[in-house]
Specification:
282 residues, alpha/beta, 10 helices, 10 strands, 43% helix
Length: 282
């Protein structure tokens, strides 16, 4: 793992308003990837408008595409045309979406295979992964799905990176990354981490997102009455010094607020840069 691990971060934002996007543009390095979450209640117009504002602010919008929420192939085609035309969107995170299929795309793989992404101006996609497994999908199926999506993307001329679900366990993340590389998967990995959030907030999101496996490890290092915000410092430090694990970088979920997460990411990046500078021989 390169020692500049913390420097190449991305983050997720859920419905950032114009004021938050302006503040992000002041905080983040130009071109930072901001993943725009496709929550169930968001409208296509909100996605397009938010992506366009991120682009105009000098940031890189990466829009979530939830396969099962499209009722017709034309709905996806129209959305992609608007995202590319109005926001110059070139990158997507393609996910299944935790709903019953309502149209022609039963999963993320179907979007990659049949969504005509390259023709819509998309050059790169992110695909999901689960260091702690998935409550409803067997481990073997998860591993096969990564291979299938990478192969399908390559067949359509798309670059691929992997975005992992967040975990609280550096050991689990490290073991998962090493297994991924041992299987010959060399694609860049965005390592999911929960940004600074209150302990009750972390517990709530962990249960909702199915990462209960590392909750024990999270709580074992905390006093029961701990207050304030808790960030993924131990994960960042572990991965920074883990050795060569290929292209990897933090991907922060902004459960505690997108601006708080952006400040944390920038501060962690500066701290890592200062450490590298001090380590250089005179």
């Amino acid at each position: 793992m390169a020692d500049d691990f913390a420097h190449r971060f991305s983050l997720e934002a859920t419905r950032p308003n114009a004021g938050e996007i302006a503040a992000l543009a002041d905080l983040l390095p130009p071109g930072t990837a901001v993943y725009f979450s496709a929550v169930p209640t968001i409208t296509p117009q909100e996605l397009i408008g938010g992506a366009a504002l991120l682009r105009r602010s000098g940031l890189e919008p990466v829009v979530h595409i939830a396969a099962r929420r499209f009722r017709a192939a034309a709905d996806l085609a129209n959305l992609l045309a608007s995202l590319h035309g109005e926001a110059d969107v070139r990158r997507l995170l393609v996910i299944g979406g935790d709903v019953e299929p309502s149209g022609p795309f039963p999963d993320a793989l179907a979007v990659i295979q049949k969504g005509r992404l390259r023709e819509a101006g998309i050059k790169e996609i992110g695909i999901g992964a689960y260091p702690e497994g998935h409550a409803r999908i067997p481990a073997g199926r998860l591993e096969a799905a990564i291979d299938e999506k990478i192969a399908a993307a390559a067949a359509h001329g798309l670059d691929v990176h992997i975005v992992s679900q967040f975990s609280f366990s550096p050991e689990r993340i490290l073991a998962w990354l090493r297994k991924l590389r041992a299987c010959g998967i060399i694609n860049p990995v965005k390592v999911g981490m929960a940004g600074p959030t209150s302990v009750p907030g972390l517990l709530r999101y962990a249960k909702r997102c199915g990462v209960n496996a590392s909750l024990h490890g999270l709580m074992s290092g905390m006093a029961a009455g701990l207050i304030g915000h808790v960030g993924p410092d131990r994960i960042v430090e572990t991965l920074r010094h883990a050795g060569d694990l290929g292209a990897a970088a933090p991907h922060y979920f902004s459960f505690g607020g997108v601006l708080e997460t952006a400040r944390y990411a920038c501060s962690t990046s500066r701290h890592a840069a200062a450490g590298r500078a001090m380590a250089q021989p005179n």
